[in-house]
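Narrative summary of target 7.
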Amino acid sequence: MYYNIGLKLLENNKWGSSFIDTLAKNLKIEFPSLKGMSARNLRYMQKFAKEFDNDEFL
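Modeled conformation, tokenized:
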């Protein structure tokens, strides 16, 4: 799941650096019980998808 989220974030990288901050805030508002979707974790997911671009490895 985290890898797929990271891929989507990479696709939407054109929106700028504040995109992840805004997304994290919106996720917190829409899904208050959902854990692990902070701006920091979203950036880690994006970095993970960038580093491991070989889908077969996962």
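Residues 2-51 form one domain.
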